[in-house]
């Protein structure tokens, strides 16, 4: 069996990093081929080091759907895959056209809450109509995939509404991560908070800065570090300066093995407005670091409030500050929740278990076609 996994790029982002962990876990008789279109090769060497075959189709510009489809169909004819799996908007649209032309079955993936009402409010003017146009394209072509794999149950529900997807033709396979052998033991005090993710608005970093500013009023020895890179950097830097936090908040950018960095901190904060099933949150659970996360449905499929994490209403900086302050004042309770989160992650999200579940879906879909 040969499967094409089709992506926009090999950027250092959630879906790409998840495949980097997932694909090497498949059975030896399942040949994997990663295909991508656009020139971000950030994780190329990582894929190659794991022995994953890759093919860059070299599409210039932001879209290039015609050339992308033409080159993908040519590659399909040459390599003769048994099944295609696509992720993310541009590669989804190209893959659907290529699947329609070639007749090779396509499995679509639901990896983000693309049509969340909060996201719709982000667009103004021509950006709004561009967003609606691609939503329409997505909906028109959503009947082409033979099946769907979602990384959270709530994504099946939301896409059934937004795209008309038949929920009976979708399975949930959560993201997985490899268990860390290293044990987290920084439970004596909570002073150093950490987050990680792309520096974009929907990750909630602006609210986190507001919350942290409130926390510092009574806890002056605290720090906040946010790992990641993105277009919001300059705005965050301006806000850090405006709030007088330059010696308390740090933005180191992208770093290798960010999960290992979590062992150097006391509490992981994840304030996203909407997500898919977050790999960053999952990595924090695997480490066992205490967690504070927004109460969005995707997060609540991984964590249970007050059992293995603290939660707060999305975009509510004041409540986030209260939860951060609670963590500072109750390190032992946070330690217990961190350990509970690790145990939950080991039981449900170990990468070997997830790979077997994912592979079962691939083989079942192929047998149905």
UniProtKB/TrEMBL annotation:
InterPro entries named in the record: Glyco_trans_1
Indicate the segments forming the Glycosyl transferase family domain, all copies: 194-343
Look up keyword Transferase and say if it applies: yes
Keyword annotations for this protein, in alphabetical order, are: Transferase
Among the GO molecular function terms of this UniProt record, one is:
transferase activity
Protein's UniProt keywords contain rRNA-binding: no
Q: Which SUPFAM superfamilies match?
A: UDP-Glycosyltransferase/glycogen phosphorylase
Q: What is this protein called?
A: Glycosyl transferase family 1
Per the UniProt record, the source organism is Echinicola rosea
What the entry lists under Pfam families is as follows: Glycos_transf_1 (PF00534)
